[in-house]
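User: Assemble these into one structure.

Assistant: Restating your components, then the assembled model:
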Amino acid sequence: MNATKTTTMKTNKTSLTDEQLEKFGEELDAIRQRVLADLGEEDAAYIRKVVKRRQQFEVAGRLLFYLPPAWPLAVAALSISKILDNMEIGHNVMHGQYDWMGDPGLNSRMYDWDTVCPGEQWKYSHNYIHHTYTNILGKDRDIGYGILRMDEDQRWRPQYLGNPVYALLLMLFFEWGVALHDLEVENIVAGKRKLADNKPLYPGLIRKIRNQTLKDYLLFPALTGPLFPLTLAGNATANLVRNIWAFNIIFCGHFPAGVSTFSQEECEDETRGHWYYRQLLGSANITGGRLFHLMSGNLSHQIEHHLFPDLPARRYPELAVEVREICERYGLQYNSGRLSKQLFSVASKICRMALPNRAPKATGPVSVTDDALAA
Amino acid sequence: MGLTTTILRSRAVAALASPQGVDRYLEQVNPMWAAHEVRARIVDIHREVDVPGHPPVATITLQPTSTWQGHRAGQHVQLGVEVDGARRTTRVFTISSPDSRRGDRFTVTLRANPSGVVSTYLVERATPGTMVHLSQALGEFVLPDQVPEHVLFISGGSGITPVMSMLRSLQRRTHRGRVTFLHYAQSPEHQIFAVELDEIRRSGHGIDVHLLHPELGDPNLSPAYLERLVPGHRAIPTWACGPAPMIEAVRAAYADSEALRVEYFQPPRPTGTSADGDVAFAKSGLEAPNSGAPLLEQAEALGLEPEFGCRMGICFSCTSRKSEGTVRNVLTGEESSLPDEDIRICVSAPVGNCVVEL
């Protein structure tokens, strides 16, 4: 399946020639094939271990609520369990990273995660839409999630003065934001989507919301008898902790300074090389230790995740070495920084984008239909 | 069902264990605990046939979880093992022990197919204590509740397993009717359950055991032979299981008689098909002239490695999407030309041009 002819793109606005772009793509393809062939016992043992720990933290957390003085510990344990479930396990399993194991409990088609968003609808908007159209203005709805202005090419409107407030609310209620994201409210308001289009989503959404709220806010608190209010508050706090942590890690993935967005035109008839190029420049990493990578679901390696979404995330740290080297050779930017640096960069952007652009951009991507972005 | 099981399967517990499901929590404590899933522990592995230079045959004894609902003699089960790097692989095996009830131990008897991942693992490398994954018992190749006065079992090679299960069940029920047990094997050394069958032959009331070795001179299976052995065999309820050629011979001897029930271990070779047109595997970009064989084989001939399970049309592991073209089900003969159809490639042979998303 080797292409012997050089595939040319309609518009190559990258810093590489068509030929370089193709070679770049081939090098990354080779890495992917190599890892796929190498998947085996270690990967299986790893994810099984994480699953086991997640469960232990959850059981510990639920039990500790019976001891009121241990409330902070209970919240911590439950928070860790939810973070592990959503990020290192859920997100990665639903990407199909462990489908090769043939285990229905780790199969992307069957897994559902501990959050109000139904796995089924999330897989469509995330695996398909976000990962296919990453950072393409007008197609990737993760740019701003329909309520924030996160890019200079999104036309400014007075409502965006509330950017920091929307961001704060999204952070605190992140699991709800993710769940409602697929209803595409901003598109309905703009008249691009009919309310009726959301009907197929309602049954799954209602069922998941019901199951999660019943579990965390009624059943488990009820099981602690008179401690009901404490447990309820504890479960709510654990969800809040997970929301805040996940939001921050995820926002550091595509919004720190230096991350590029792309126009629909330059991505038309995209070659494999350009796809990799866009994934690379549209993502940013966070540096840290092994524990940090685990707790971030390896989204600290957002670049490697976007280059290889279906490879087990535990492989990303070792692949990062190779990816960095390739970037150096091709003279491409590899955006990576400390959590505090990336977070500060994102927070500044949120505040900056609340205001209209300072000066007209000298050169920018081909002008995009702003209506696609204005809510 | 015990109180514990009732509680574990209740909606209240399911709500607490949501969205993982209670089985995910139970298995961490003890893999033999389950509320819905079916698993089993290997208790014993016993070699039945071990002829040097030939694949061995072994009987695996399994202790299932309480979720196992039992089986009827003649049924089979999907068995999944984690082999070599934790890839769970599933294959279908016939249960050789007599009728079982909920939670009962049972056995599967299988030959270590030289190119088979699961069978080789089970026969040659698995050890007591290993956990396997199960489906519930499946299959329609069973005895009726009212067993007829005279039944005839015809089997060849490892096709003996379902009829052996039936024979053992009848013995346990102290069946008073006549049973004729006809089996074809390569040689006495290759005879599975040799000792037991010998015992039955000598002492079983009303059970006629005939073990034939055509490669050593015994008569082949033919309508004349069957008629001699069991006069009026076409009217006798008969269960036949074995290699495709043997089954074809039995079918010929029975014409269209409804007394015959058949179980295939491999899908029958499509005969008299005009293999024209081309087969295209869209995702891999491969194309080749249609050979008339089932799509799974044609894909493998081109170097693809589609997922498969039983290769028999039972387990649906090989389900793939046919975007366009006509396929024929080699088991039933049914043809289908629907576009964008999910088909079992192990039992679907293309009729003319065909495009599959593999």
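Residues 1-36 of chain B form one domain.
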